[in-house]
Design goal:
This protein is of the alpha/beta class. The protein is about 40% helix and about 15% strand. The strands form four sheets. It has a six-stranded parallel sheet with strand order 3-2-4-5-7-6, with helices on both faces. Strands 11-10-9-12-13-14 form a six-stranded parallel sheet, sandwiched between helices. Helix 8 packs across helix 12.
Length: about 550
Amino acid sequence: MPRLSTAEATVETLLLHGLDTVYALPGLHQDPLFDAFYHASDRLRVIHPRHEQTAAYMALGAALATGKPQAFGVVPGPGLLNAGAALLTAYGMNAPVIGLIGQIPQADIDKGHGHLHEIHDQLGLMRHITKWAERIRSPQEAPTLVSQAIWQATSGRPRPVALECALDTWAKRSEVVIPEAPLPLPPESIDDEAVETAARILGQAERPIIVLGGGAMDASDEIIRLAEMLEAPVSSYRRGRGIVPSSHRLAVDMPIGHRLWKDADAVLAVGTRFFIQNGNWGIDDKLKVVRVDIDPDEPERFRKPDAALVGDAAPQLRALIAALGRHNRKRTSRAEELNGHRAWFAGRLSMLEPQLSFLKAIRNALPEDGIFVDEVSQMGFASRVALPIEKPRTFLSPGYQDNLGWGFGTALGAKAAMPDRKVLAIAGDGGFMYQVGELATAARHNIAVVVVVFDNGAFGNVKRIQQERYGNRLIASDLQNPDFAKLADSFGIASFKAFDARQLEDALHKAFALNAPALVWVPHGDVPSPWDLIMMPKVRG
């Protein structure tokens, strides 16, 4: 039985579970942990950004791109709070992120003595913003709790978890038992009665539609098979995009899904909160609802569906496919109908200039398996409905938190985890300045993300709202920006400047050819709003 410190036992358990990268910032409370990282450096990679928020965002990006758990480490108190925005985003996006959080000396926790970085009830705080959180109190506990943390992060509905450990506890040594294997995930179960009910509803429907969210990410084949059996259009938004390729004959963007919604008689909602449809588009008694979700609480969160299949999407849908053959009516092609909707959509998108041309330039330069990271920006909003996506996990978008400044750090994590894939992040000038210091991280670790900074000198969405709703009373929406090209140059990062879509595409091809970090600066003026294609009105119920 090896004699290990708490920190060493933690590292060995992470490695047992296949976590060979940690995104982390050092500090006093984490010194023993970082020493353990050092001694395992032949097996473990540590990537250190310039801000705790970025450490957690990088873990998030890696988790979103790979579908596997990822770890970050920060100091307690302010360090945890700095990482809080990323933890909230990971929670909203159902991402398996594991936080390793420092703590003050164990005997003094919650005593109010005024230790460096002390915060009252840090464990309670972590429990409010994660799926599960615990404190490691001894070396013997470390392997069990780390294993439990990873199990919690990956079982059922994936979500972030956190472990805190006191400075002195990290350094304690004892004989420790390292588990021989990760904890097994719960077995999948199929409710045959629910499957039969769902198959009957969908098979009898004349105008079914499928709605996808991030929980359908690993069920592309099954969803395509179902869509083709039902001749059902597949509508997706943000994390659901790419599960069915945009080029597929039945794939439709969300605005077309909205046009189809009022006449649909059944919907299959897979791995989605279904919030937009429930809350905005409307549901009535003429629309039968079938939900598929791994979270048993999710299907009835808004209203009770007509059938609910609880479990991982892929096996649940395979059971549904097997049952559907007994109930499915004869189908005719909906190609003409859908082509008519696509013609309308193309006409509407043509009014989104220059965003549409910029997005076409990005699509031409970024390979189909390249990863695109959007941002809370005018270009980001447009990309959610206008950028074709052909593969799952290649469109990363921050979910309902939608927090400004998430994109660059997340893209760095995605690229670090998927080094053979091209990764492109877009940013507005406002959001990019949240994490501009991470240009140093990209350079230090040679993380070859290409970031495109669209610069309109304003918080564009805030400015538009002030113009349209508040009588053009502009306040705190204008921005003073640097020369972004010179700024990138000062970090030793290649820079390009583009004023139109042609120049942007040319710059992107050059940037990707470098296989190194690069920045493309795109100054532009005001752009048209895409919001009527996102916040669409109620059409039934």
